[in-house]
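Database export, one record per block. Field names are fixed; values are copied verbatim from the stored entry.
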Amino acid sequence: MTIDNTDSANASLGDFTSEEWLRYTRHLQLPQIGVSGQKKLKAAKVLIVGAGGLGSPVSLYLAAAGVGQLTIIDGDHVDVTNLQRQIIFTTEQVGKSKALCAQEKLLALNPSINVTAIAEHLSLTNAEKLILDADLILDCTDNFATRYLLNDTCVKLKKPWLFASIYQFSGQCALFTESSACFRCLFPDPPTGVADCNSAGVLGVLPGLLGTLQANEAIKFLTDLPCPLENNLLMVEASDLTFRKIKLNKNAHCPMCGDEPANSTIDTAQYDMSCELDLDVNDELTPLEFTNQREKEDTLVLDVRGDEEREAFNIGGMHIPLNMLLDNLLVLDKKQTILCYCQTGIRSKKAVGLLKDNGFNVKGLQGGLATFLKEGM
């Protein structure tokens, strides 16, 4: 018989300290997880790409569950507009690195795990190494460029990844593995003209709902429990609370995972986030430049937001919603310089492109009203 007279609160109980044993009691009591499942979670290495609306609940629940190594990569900083849904951050953290703030929060929640923060975006430079080191990758991004980079690298390295996306009141979630269809089977090429949360808005609790579903599937996958989202796409509608699951079929001609791939080469430009926005710095004015320009003669300020946004708050100027702009070109004067603005700068970019194509001298407000107001203009 061995007698252990250690009085430390962290006395070892085999694979767990006494604190860990107490912390994970509810998992240990589950027959489906138990000691063996909790050991698998402790040994697991998970890469979370994005620390925003989806990454918040995902990282919190995986940290609480005892996933031994969490790596969070996000190159953005906390913005006040994030706080409506990105529950891992606080007001006092505005302006700070999302990845570093998330790391601090997760270690405060569970100091017995390891959390690595990478304050940069996933890119061709770092993707392969980060994905190779992980047992499971979670897509918590908000753009197609990173999503295609994730998919193609995971297929190449035979790594499983959990996809989720959100839009207004709708969400999607799926698990892609070596034996399942891949993301390109579902979407062979990046869609065009798809609005994101910055321009279309999102219900604050929706990323919490989809992120929790991701965390649920991640825990089951890591503990070798059945995962019904493998090779299935779950579609969630928060407006009427409906859930629909669609079976995914592997495309034999998929350029990434097909048995007889089509004769096509993946354009790596698809991995560049800036390509999605089609940015032209000459088409945008900073808030200060916008303020100075609007005071000049022969200048028209144009609000391209919707009616309710306009009524709730505006900084003046003519109002023509973006979806009505093409039908109202005749009310605009080509002799004037037109300054377009919207909430975050996404719709004004589209308005600038449309008006330029029709011969107008036009500029957009960089970052939209959100940036304009933050800079105290």
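Remark 1: The first strand starts at residue 12 and ends at 13.
Remark 2: Confidence is low (pLDDT under 50) at residues 1-13.
End of record.
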